[in-house]
Design brief:
The chain is α/β, with parallel strands linked by helices and about 290 residues long. Helix content is about 40%, strand content about 20%. The structure holds arginine (ARG).
């Protein structure tokens, strides 16, 4: 009898261990996937300067043209895409310089939660836009100051003169063109969808239109996470000047960073995330590698 009890206890213990192990690995295994091949929008990035600031606009355009001409531009881009980039930048002062010193600086407005365009590497800044910003500052013989802020403050920071230029993976659109001037476009992008890897809602899609059709079928309990003030938010929630009706049938939630939306996807609080393609790939990769 004792023996039977002992065996039973051992079995129970093993079962309990397996269960708790399963519960935590089950959670850890919750990976995300990016539906990269289905581009929901067609967008182009450019840098934003205050209306009429042709001097800075031209300098940025000259830099872009030079870098494209000598092959450096493609080198920079691919180094971030394949993960070999080594460039980092640290501000030399702790706040946007004011007064007499202001002129010595190129103040760049960005939101540094958008890899591979701008992100933190430890406490240093890195990314395509940051590296281009440092080259622009060098060209202008100025010291770079990167002003990291919420994405939806970037344009105001430029129009108010607090910052000189917005370099933030920013899509050119009609609404923004009313407020700022854009440089030449330097990168083509698109909104894409991120879901949990285990989610089968979109398993049969064969085109972006199929995704749109499925999104249109959802109800208010279906939540799409996006970054505040971005074209992803405008696409999901609707935006007249951007030319998207939005999915008024579902719920669009805005986050201060794309990664926070993905965090809520993993936590089961949102059903899908809509964000720019390269950032989607990078953010998904870092979430999945943590598993
Ligand atoms: N391309 C999108 C837009 O212009 C998203 C940009 C987000 N950029 C950032 N640095 N967080 O709205």
């Amino acid at each position: 009898m004792k023996k039977v009890m002992a065996i039973l206890m051992a079995l129970l213990l093993t079962a309990a261990m397996l269960l708790s192990f399963g519960a935590c690995t089950g959670k850890e295994a919750e990976k995300v996937k990016v539906l990269t091949e289905y581009e929901l929008t067609a967008e182009s990035y450019a840098f934003a300067v205050a209306k009429g600031n042709t001097e800075l606009k031209n300098a940025a355009n000259d830099l872009l043209a030079e870098l494209k001409e000598n092959g450096k531009f493609d080198e920079i881009l691919s180094s971030y895409f394949d993960g070999t980039a080594t460039f980092t930048y640290e501000n030399t002062v702790s706040a946007i310089p004011k007064g007499n010193d202001r002129d010595k600086y190129l103040v760049v407005a960005t939101n540094a939660f958008f890899p591979p365009f701008e992100y933190y590497e430890g406490n240093k800044l890195s990314g395509i836009d940051i590296e281009l910003a440092s080259l622009l500052a060098e060209k202008l013989d100025k010291t770079l100051y990167v002003a990291d802020m919420e994405f939806d403050s970037v344009i105001t920071s430029v129009t108010s003169g607090e910052s000189d230029i917005g370099m933030a993976g920013m899509t050119v659109n009609a609404e923004r063109l009313e407020k700022v001037d854009f440089t030449d476009e330097y990168y083509e992008s698109a909104q894409v969808l991120i879901t949990l890897e285990s989610d089968e809602t979109f398993k049969d899609v064969k085109s972006a239109d199929d995704i749109v059709a499925i999104l249109k079928e959802q109800s208010k309990s279906f939540i799409v996470g996006t970054q505040n003030g971005t074209t992803g938010y405008m696409y999901s929630n609707g935006d007249e000047s951007f030319g998207y009706d939005g999915f008024t049938n579902l719920t669009t939630n805005g986050y201060t960073a794309g990664a926070l939306a993905v965090q809520d996807l993993v936590n089961g609080k949102v059903n899908a995330v809509i964000i720019d393609k390269q950032p989607a790939i990078m953010i998904a990769k870092s979430f999945n590698e943590d598993k």
